[in-house]
Amino acid sequence: MADECFRHPRLAAVYDALDTDRGDLDAYLRMAGEFGARRVLDIGCGTGVFALLLADRGIEVVGVDPAAASLDVAREKPGAARVRWIEGDAAALPPLRADLATMTANVAQAITGPRAWQGTLRGAYEALRPGGHLVFETRDPARRAWEEWDREHTHRVVEVPGAGAVESWCDLLDVSGPLVTFRWTYVFTADGEVLTSDSTLRFRDRDEVEADLTGRGFEVREVRDAPDRRGRELVFLARRA
Description:
Elements: H1 4-7, H2 9-18, H3 25-34, E1 39-43, H4 49-56, E2 60-65, H5 68-75, E3 83-87, E4 98-103, H6 107-110, H7 114-127, E5 128-139, H8 151-154, E6 156-160, E7 164-176, E8 179-188, E9 193-202, H9 206-215, E10 218-225, E11 233-240
Parallel strand pairs: 1-2, 1-4, 2-3, 4-5
Antiparallel strand pairs: 5-11, 6-7, 7-8, 8-9, 10-11
């Protein structure tokens, strides 16, 4: 099930305004060009930011996400008709023969259960044509990013058009092995409503990810340093054999 920040209509509506720094997507756009991708599967597409950037470049895009509220936001954006939106996950997709499958931002880490993770990798493999690529990122657990997931480092107030000022901050709730749980709090000053969204991410090290990929039939072609979080996050490039 998607986190509340993606499936609650009021939170989904302000998500883009609270997450404006999407410089991380530049690297994915470059890789789509690098691989000559004409058909892309965007797993965990959310409000459609990356899917629409691809569509603007004439690429055929399928965006899949389990959060209906986020997809509702995506479908209302300019150019949304050029993207095929699917409510669900990568474990159950129609035949696609995509050139590239992507999981941007926290998508790969948000799939925490071993069965769900294996199902996602299997679904991505089956959605790709032979020789197609899967690309995703994950934070290096050794860098312990969660140590800054507190109010001191995350608190801010953003003026959102049509919604007014929204105050938000993060609190770390639990660290249990590879699983890190945290809570975002949102205060809508226009009417005082307070909403929260709990999330859990799974921190996988490089060896674990490579073993999972090869176990699902992928060839790990390269592991790159994420350009927006150098030394803290890795981008995996895998090819369907």
